[in-house]
Amino acid sequence: MSDDIKKYFNGLLQKVSGLYVIQITDRDGVPLLRVSNSQEKNVDFALMPSFIPTFTTACDQASKLGLGRNKTIISMYSNYQVVQMNKLPLILTFVGAEDCNTGHILALEHQVDGYLEDIKLAVTEP
Amino acid sequence: MEQQLEKVLSEILTTPETVGALLANRQGLCLGAKGNINPNVSGIGMAISEQVAKLEPNSTLPATVCLYSGNKRCVIQKDGEITGIIYKQTATATTASTSASN
């Protein structure tokens, strides 16, 4: 099962040009699955202890704006773009080049839902 | 601010058989959509046009992609920073024959 999921996310990584990493963690930043394009840039910052909890906090604060529950945060940097999706209890993080197709990454959201259900079960089971 | 964009999209929709039109920026994000078209297709449409452009890397003319599916077709063209996606739908054969018999 785990191999199937990893294979699927590796396929997604190849489909989107300029995408470096897809990472699934829990809301505290504990890595559950990570696929990366080894030839591309080193993007270990996505595993920094403060990275995911910062997103969780930002997401919680953004949800208080009165616009409904915050689903996605896109952060553009000079060399990278980071797309983080709130799929509680999971956090889905995409790291790509600054000129990567953001719309394509966002379109993946609905495609991955089925696979995330399996991982969610693993996280929530006692 | 996007009045001009809305105007262009409305003009596109007035052309025959057009059911939906969308414009995307260079990030694949939807700038505007009108008619029967899902704004989420902006990213995938742009990805298709980028891949097609690689077939003729020396071409200066923007590539046009046309995808046929049943009685619908999707026309994609990337010109500079803007990608346009248009959905067209032709009347089905059964509808055409029914209307002809009437």
From TrEMBL, chain A:
Write out the GO cellular component annotations: Ragulator complex
* Superkingdom classification of source: Eukaryota
| Annotated Pfam families | MAPKK1_Int
Gene Ontology biological process terms, A to Z:
cellular response to amino acid stimulus; positive regulation of TOR signaling
Q: Which InterPro entries match?
A: LAMTOR3
Of which family is this protein a member?
A: Belongs to the LAMTOR3 family.
For this entry, the protein name equals Ragulator complex protein LAMTOR3 homolog
From TrEMBL, chain B:
Q: What family is this protein classified in?
A: Belongs to the LAMTOR5 family.
Q: Does the keyword Cytoplasm apply?
A: yes
Q: Which gene encodes it?
A: LOC111595949
One GO term in the molecular function aspect is: guanyl-nucleotide exchange factor activity
A Pfam entry, by short name: LAMTOR5
Cell compartment(s), UniProt? Cytoplasm; Lysosome
Instruction: Just give the chief location class.
Output: cytoplasm
Keyword annotations for this protein, in alphabetical order, are: Cytoplasm, Lysosome
What is the protein name given in its UniProt record? Late endosomal/lysosomal adaptor and MAPK and MTOR activator 5
